[in-house]
């Protein structure tokens, strides 16, 4: 694959519960191209969330390599891994994780603050993104005044405010009805097609997975491509 942005080789993760070893990943090899929209689909317990957390630098593998935008995660200190995560990776979760006391815009700017961009004006591209998400008129509302679909779109804006190289989405429509699910998935596809955003999406839903360019299926800690 030309110009890969994620390169995973021989990835294993073993959790230990007392004296018992529980393998979550059993030797995963995966390459994601820059600008690709890849869906990883599989049932609960298949290992896909563990893969998500390792790629995002939220947990470490037991063995194997993960290279993100040319940087080998194994060679980074904890501080360097945190900086890579903040600068290179945006996260969307099933739960919106918005702070209830802040407005939508303040929730978005909070991510910018943690990345050292506090006080810098948003550029025109991000203003266009807010229009694409359809939330430009809802930015001064707090989460309780927003629908579930609007909250997830605010969460998407927050994940992109630092212009990450990779957007990781973990069951992004898990809390949404069909109409809002379709809208959020269409937005993710537009982000990929119109802005060239690299997206790795984890889902249990094959219909959601179909919005991506390519789908790989995970089962029992292993991947197979479709």
Task: Describe, in short, the structure shown.
This protein is α/β, with parallel strands linked by helices and 226 residues long. The protein has seven helices and ten strands.
Query: Which whole number gives the mean pLDDT?
Result: 89
* Overall morphology: globular
| Strand proportion | 25-35%
How many helices? The count is 7
Flag low-confidence runs: none
Largest sheet descriptor: 6 strands, mixed
Q: Could you explain the architecture of this structure?
A:
This protein has 226 residues and is an alpha/beta fold. It has seven helices and ten strands. The chain has helices spanning 48-55, 78-88, 104-114, 124-133, 148-160, 178-195, 206-209; strands spanning 4-17, 20-33, 37-41, 63-68, 71-72, 89-92, 166-170, 198-203, 214-219, 222-225. The strands form two sheets. It has a six-stranded mixed sheet with strand order 6-7-8-3-9-10, with helices on both faces. Strands 2-1-4-5 form a four-stranded antiparallel sheet, covered by helices on one side. α5 (148-160) packs parallel to α6 (178-195). It is globular and about 50 Å long. The chain starts with a strand and ends with a strand.
In terms of topology, how is this protein built?
Layout: E1 4-17, E2 20-33, E3 37-41, H1 48-55, E4 63-68, E5 71-72, H2 78-88, E6 89-92, H3 104-114, H4 124-133, H5 148-160, E7 166-170, H6 178-195, E8 198-203, H7 206-209, E9 214-219, E10 222-225
Parallel strand pairs: 3-8, 3-9, 6-7, 7-8
Antiparallel strand pairs: 1-2, 1-4, 4-5, 9-10
Helix pairs in contact: 3-5, 4-5, 5-6
């Amino acid at each position: 694959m030309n110009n890969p942005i994620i390169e995973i080789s021989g990835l294993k993760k073993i959790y230990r519960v007392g004296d018992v070893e529980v393998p979550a990943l059993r030797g995963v090899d995966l390459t994601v191209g820059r600008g690709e929209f890849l869906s990883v689909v599989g049932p609960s317990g298949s290992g896909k969330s563990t893969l998500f957390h390792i790629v995002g630098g939220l947990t470490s593998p037991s063995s194997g390599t993960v290279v993100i935008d040319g940087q080998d995660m194994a060679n980074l200190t904890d501080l360097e891994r945190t900086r890579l995560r903040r600068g290179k990776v945006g996260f969307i979760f099933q739960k919106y994780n918005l702070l209830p006391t802040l407005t939508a815009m303040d929730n978005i700017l909070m991510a910018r603050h943690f990345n050292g961009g506090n006080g810098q004006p948003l550029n025109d591209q991000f203003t266009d993104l807010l229009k694409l998400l359809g939330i430009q008129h809802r930015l001064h509302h707090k989460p309780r005044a927003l629908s579930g679909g609007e909250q997830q779109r605010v969460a998407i804006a927050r994940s992109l405010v630092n212009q990450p190289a990779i957007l990781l989405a973990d069951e992004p429509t898990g809390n949404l009805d069909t109409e809002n699910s379709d809208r959020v998935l269409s937005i993710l596809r537009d982000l990929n097609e119109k802005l060239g955003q690299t997206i790795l999406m984890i889902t249990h839903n094959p219909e959601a997975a179909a919005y991506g360019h390519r789908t790989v299926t995970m089962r029992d800690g292993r991947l197979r491509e479709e």
